[in-house]
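Bug #77: duplicate submission created two jobs. Keeping one. Sequence:
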Amino acid sequence: MSWSTVSRLVSATPPKLDQSSTLYTSSSSLVSIVRISLSLSWKTGPSSTITYLSSSLASPTSKKQICRAAAEYRFPDPIPDFADAETEKFRTHLLNKLSKKDVYEDSVEEVVGICTEIFDTFLHTEYGGPGTLLVVPFIDMADTLNERGLPGGSQAARAAIKWAQNHVDKDWKEWTGDEN
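Kept job's structure:
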């Protein structure tokens, strides 16, 4: 099977998530749609449907594949207990890291407090597992620190994002038991 194109399939009504695999084939065998249901790996996770549209317009052996999985996938909701635990790890790391720098002088606690508050808000409201770690909260950290006239805004945001990239997704997988 060759994959030549992947793009979004648009429909007038949103598809329903079904629990069975279904194969639809047109009478001319030029177009076939395969709908596959998936159950995601977390315990109470939703089901998702992937729809492939396959058509052989150029030759019988070449098939055009269009995947609509991205349009139908829903990330899980944030987990408050995970957010609390991860925020504490973040705060501890950032406090240790920034305390070693002379740039912050007496404002280390305030800088760490602002960064931690922004990170905590993000984890509680938007982070739903791997693929949802955004750069926006880290930009907000640098902007807020700079607006308040605190030293080292960009350095603190860089340390924060570096830690998050190395730990948050991995810790989520451990927390939820997802091995992928």
